[in-house]
Amino acid sequence: MTHKKIEFVGTSLRDLKRFPRAAMQDAGYQLEKVQRGSEPDDWKTFPAVGAGVKEIRIQDEGGIFRVMYVAKFDDAVYVLHAFQKKTEKTRKADVDVAKERYEEILRRKSS
């Protein structure tokens, strides 16, 4: 079975490592499913960031966490942003971070 490599953009790996242990482990498991070509257990598309962007939704006793990624490219799964969600609606600042990193990937691919 083929695994796409995973590439963390910006501070996304550092941010993911700040999740509580159980949430971090679940995020890793869900990202591995994406690497194998499967969908995570709980996810939704996030077109406000860019075409093909999805977010993994994790909830445990430590809170609500999100991992935004894009897997539509052949070379890798790109993790754009990992953060704790504290409000009903995703904060504009978190959307902007993911969007900026997505656009960075597009620029790299077009050059």
Q: Which structural class do the helices and strands define?
A: alpha+beta
Mean pLDDT equals 95
Gyration radius (Cα, Å) is 13 Å
Strand content: 25-35%
How far do the termini sit from each other? Answer: 31 Å
Quaternary class? single chain
What does this structure look like?
There is one protein chain. By secondary structure, the protein is of the alpha+beta class. Helices cover 36% and strands 30% of the residues. It contains three helices and five strands. It has a five-stranded mixed beta sheet with strand order 1-5-4-3-2, sandwiched between helices. The protein is globular, with a radius of gyration of 13 Å. The N and C termini lie far apart (31 Å).
Summarize the structure.
With 111 residues, this protein is of the alpha+beta class. It is 36% helix and 30% strand.
What labels describe this entry?
111 residues; alpha+beta; 5-stranded mixed sheet; 30% strand
